Amino acid sequence: MFKKILIANRGEIACRVIKTARKMGIATVAIYSDADRNALHVQMADEAVHIGPPPANESYIVIDKVMEAIRQTGAEAVHPGYGFLSENPKFAKALEAEGVAFVGPPVKAIEAMGDKITSKKIAQEADVSTVPGYMGLIEDADEAVKISNEIGYPVMIKASAGGGGKGMRIAWSDEEAREGFQSSKNEAASSFGDDRIFIEKFVTQPRHIEIQVLCDSHGNGVYLNERECSIQRRNQKVVEEAPSPFLDEETRRAMGEQSLALAHAVGYASAGTVEFIVDGDRNFYFLEMNTRLQVEHPVTELITGVDLVEHMIRVAYGEKLALTQDDVKINGWAIENRLYAEDPYRGFLPSIGRLTRYRPPEEIDIEGAVVRNDTGVYEGGEISMYYDPMIAKLCTWAPTRAAAIDGMRNALDAFEVEGIGHNLPFLSAVMDHPKFVSGDMTTAFIAEEYPEGFSGVELPEDVLRRIAASTAAMHRVAEIRRTRVSGRMDNHERHVGEDWVVSLQGQDYPVTVAADREGASVRFNDGTTLRVSSDWTPGDTLARLDVGGDALVLKVGKITQGFRIRSRGADLKVHVRTPRQAKLAALMPEKLAADTSKLLLCPMPGLIVKVNVAEGDEVQEGQALCTVEAMKMENILRAERRGVVSKVNAGPGDSLAVDDVIMEFE
């Protein structure tokens, strides 16, 4: 077996590979840019080599720099993770020339399947069902519009060398095809160094289901069933699960067999994924083959018990697969939620900064429940604008889908992240959404269910009452602590009243709190009572409570006369006041927000790529004003209403912070 492996990647996937290599007794080498000098993968590896400035095209995807790191350390093999150089045939060839093993498929398979145009032609020859589209290269925006009309809108504009949602746009009109072509081309060039574009028919109401394959260099291969990745935003996966709640055994087998036929057709060896779009009648169409480990591989590992990274390393070493198709089973259900450094309240725009608090839920692996968190960050670490915004993958497993979802709800509630915008509230909302719970969702889920964006969660009455009872009991504990500290009287409890008014989500709940050594009984005006018990103490940022016999987890922050409470996707200001205080508070006027309607504010930290208008220009609603690039994605900012540009404050090449004024209107 290899003695030393270099991981040509960063973040959580580098940490993931290091864990398996360590388990196998293999030493590891990390590479890092200036921005990653103190990164977790650097700390975890046995050795680390600096390879350049923060931008990936000056460090992580510069083949010569990675090759020099291999020579310096004497690594015998390289695991590329995903993204960066993972599907770059030039890199695989360079390793081959150096006599270093590539923990991935043969060069010819990468070339054939890594190029989406070529892969579709091979898939057709292998009798794999494919989506209609134009497989030739497209030179300019005019040709893109012409082809889109021939195929028929809507169409998907895609980078040939793309992946991870980069270089992909859906177009419903000529204008969107023109804009989408240019943005896809730009993103493809900056992310992959390859700006070739193709166009295919966009299947409406689709489900995104993929098959995991594993092959060796001796002609053996298995498919490890499917994953469903239907909760997506901008073609980037957010929630994945295995198996799919939609497939039947017949469709699963057909998809698996076609996937293996495609893999064998190109002499595939290693782990790979064949992606399909599946319509409502379970007709499936080949999208692409990813010749690498997928981001969402943990859910497959959780339902099959197969360590994909270990098998990739063994295959690269020349070993035969230790699995046959009969060995592959489906055990239980697994769900993965991707934690992104992006603010769901600001249109999911990227967020950067220091993680002032990062406390994932405890990882467990016991009978009936698994919590797994693949991450590449730590408390106090910096989230950079240079790389992908994903910072963790939270996974749960249970014997049933319902139990796996419930485990995920609790794990999300216990996940503490502060210092950056993040999508934990949105993930919690998805886990409670009826469509997801029923399994009746498509890749259009976010667009259909949150057409105006995500603005938080309105909790139902029963949950509000549980939170009201909890915070009333917690407030009483805090008041007792306060009177003890003040030292005003020995009998401190006489200073803490029983009657309170809890205000949250626009509702007031008058309650009476009767406490004892075991907890508190909280009685509402209608006579109902909830029993609350917890070991929470003032200052704790996480409260685990039993409320009426059911578990409740709350993230807790202190505000005047109450708490900031976050639970199940809701972010609540909860005030706990005496009846007199509540009466006076109702008379206080609300503070009005500042008027920014005549300003175009930068919604995220990023780089101005293009400004489309000048001072004095009249703009129409929906017109493109400028393009901001952040975390490898281009974002077009548009006019919200008609107006005249009075001042332009930023130009191409300017780096802006959140809420910097880009331009002003009359």
Count of separate DSSP helical elements: 17
- Rg, alpha carbons: 27 Å
> Outline, from the CA principal axes?
globular
Strand order of the largest sheet: 14-13-10-11-12-15-23-21-20
Secondary structure category = alpha+beta
Helix percent reads: 25-40%
Care to count the β-strands? 40
Span of the ends, CA to CA = 69 Å
Q: What percent of residues are in strands?
A: 25-35%
What average pLDDT do the residues reach?
92
Q: Main sheet? A: 9 strands, antiparallel
Uncertain runs are 489-493
Protein described:
With 666 residues, the protein is α+β, with helices and mostly antiparallel strands. 28% of the residues lie in helices and 34% in strands. The strands form 9 sheets. Strands 14-13-10-11-12-15-23-21-20 form a 9-stranded antiparallel β-sheet. A hairpin with a 5-residue loop joins β16 and β17 (349-350). α5 (107-114) packs across α6 (116-125) and α12 packs antiparallel against α13 (424-432). It starts with a strand and ends with a strand. The relative contact order is 0.08. Mean pLDDT is 92; it is low at 489-493.
